[in-house]
Design brief:
267 residues; alpha/beta; 7 strands
Length: 267
């Protein structure tokens, strides 16, 4: 089984459109490599969820946004386009353990005239302490397809979708890292399949103090995709509930982040 597919036209923009004037990345400008996962239906669902929540995200005024496992860079580029960089001084980060993916992500960002710090690392290894409780928006399209455990973390394209037993092996590694990174006011978006038992994921996150809801659902004859949104809430819901707005927003400050000079030195 591979990641599910919905066949649809997405984000068609005339070639004459200025490259930074649209709200999501153009497929024609996304970098390519045979060992890098290309934008597909799960990528489109995640971006559509961010678009559906865009007005709330703009009100949040995020200082740091981060994609874990950026692949082609389609999602982090779309996020940077829809929120902008200059108005709020937002900083964008993207990680991927596949060095080809980090190169392709940079190509995609540059083709759209936006910038992010792109780091080759496993999830957020080496970053979680420096960025602890500082990331306002985290987006993840994890390897979620149920596969034999020996396919998890394999080389090449398989690593982008092989999720182990019930598709949860990699997802369950992501969750504690996200808990370390996410700011007190932050929001976290993740793609899951029904086979991943998203309700159980919501309960696990509830036990850590998170409320949750489903932002987007898409179905095929074989499976259903869910894009889940999480945020910290002392009275967290026990299941993924009906859509509603997240918590009140509060401005954070980059000047309060330890080691900011490190990021400036890498620009």
């Amino acid at each position: 089984m591979t990641k599910v597919h919905f066949h649809m036209a997405h984000n068609e923009v005339k070639a004459s459109t200025p490259k930074n004037s649209f709200r999501t990345a153009r497929i024609q400008l996304v970098g390519r490599h045979p060992d890098v996962y290309e934008p597909c239906d799960d990528s489109f669902a995640l971006v559509d969820a961010l678009l559906a929540d865009r007005s709330n995200l703009l009100e949040l005024r995020p200082v740091i946004c981060m994609e874990l496992g950026s692949g082609s860079g389609y999602v982090i580029t779309s996020l940077a386009l829809m929120l902008g960089q200059e108005e709020f001084g937002t900083h964008y980060f993207a990680t991927d353990m596949n060095e080809d993916a980090t190169r392709v992500t940079v190509e995609t960002l540059e083709a759209h005239g936006v910038h992010a710090e792109v780091i080759s690392t496993d999830i957020a290894s080496g970053l979680s302490k420096r960025l602890a409780r500082s990331v306002d928006v985290i987006v993840v399209n994890p390897p979620y397809v149920p596969t034999p455990e020996d396919e998890v973390g394999s080389e090449g394209l398989t690593a982008a979708w092989a999720g182990g037993e019930n598709g949860r092996t990699v997802i369950d590694r992501f969750l504690p890292v996200i808990d370390e990174l996410l700011s007190l006011r932050g929001w976290f978006y993740m793609v899951t399949l029904t086979a991943n038992n998203p309700s159980q994921i919501c309960r696990l996150m509830r036990d850590k103090g998170y409320a949750s809801r489903i932002v987007v659902q898409r179905s095929t004859e074989e499976e259903r995709l869910h894009v889940l949104k999480f945020w910290r809430d002392a009275e967290a819901a026990s299941e993924c509930p009906s859509p509603r707005k997240g918590p009140p927003t509060r401005r954070s400050s980059l000047s309060q982040l330890p080691g900011l000079s490190f990021w400036k030195s890498t620009n």
